[in-house]
Amino acid sequence: MSLRYALLGLLSQEAGSGYQLARRFEGGMGRYAWHAQQSQIYPEVNRLAADGLVSVVDEGPRHRRTYAITPAGREQLRRWLTDPDDTPIVRNEQILRLFLLPCLDREDARAVLRHQAAASLRELEALHATVGEVGSGTGGGPVPVDLLVAELGLRYFQHLHEWSLWALEQLDG
């Protein structure tokens, strides 16, 4: 069900075709929040259109359709965003792998944790650079929402890096 809202959210920011939506998922959203493939996106966009939550605003060559969110779609998205579920379901492949570390022997588990520590440090450094660029453009004004989300990423990867180092110490101790 979250794919529906991810698509509504993307279309509330900018109209797009199924291909363009898939490309936007390949960016930050697909890496950090929710992964979706074209084979999932196209049928869901068609369901959204059938439900009156998005409409086709342009048709191009080879049946390429550009979709935009409708007022009903905006209202459903707003309702979902402001009434979050009390028991969220997290889908994080990275955390699933860490959860299943006991399936490995100690040396393989150490290798996974060393890789995790290095990868989370790289992400942390990249996000620091991004936050620095975005933050310097605020000029003392209100903090953009993108900067708040980037800060969440910074804190997540900082914690993951520290946890990976701690877990390595636990295996070695």
Descriptive notes:
Helix content is about 70%, strand content about 10%. By secondary structure, the protein is mainly alpha-helical. It is elongated, with a radius of gyration of 20 Å. Helix 1 packs across helix 4 (about 70-80). It has two domains: about 1-80, Winged helix-like DNA-binding domain superfamily/Winged helix DNA-binding domain (Arc Repressor Mutant, subunit A), CATH 1.10.10; about 95-170. The protein has helices at about 1-15, 20-30, 40-50, 70-80, 95-100, 105-135, 145-170, and strands at about 15, 55-60, 65-70. Strand 2 and strand 3 (about 65-70) form a beta hairpin. The model has no long low-confidence stretch (mean pLDDT about 85). A three-stranded antiparallel sheet has the order 1-3-2.
Quickly describe the structure.
This protein has helices at residues 2-13, 18-32, 38-50, 71-82, 93-99, 106-136, 145-172; strands spanning 16-17, 54-59, 65-69.
Proportion of residues in extended strands: 5-15%
Given helix and strand content, the structural type is mainly alpha
Mean pLDDT: 86
* Relative helix content: 55-70%
Distance separating the two termini: 43 Å
What would the principal axes of the Cα set say about the shape? elongated
Q: Let me know the largest β-sheet.
A: 3 strands, antiparallel
Number of helices: 7
CATH level-4 homologous superfamily of the largest domain:
Winged helix-like DNA-binding domain superfamily/Winged helix DNA-binding domain
Strand order of the largest sheet: 1-3-2
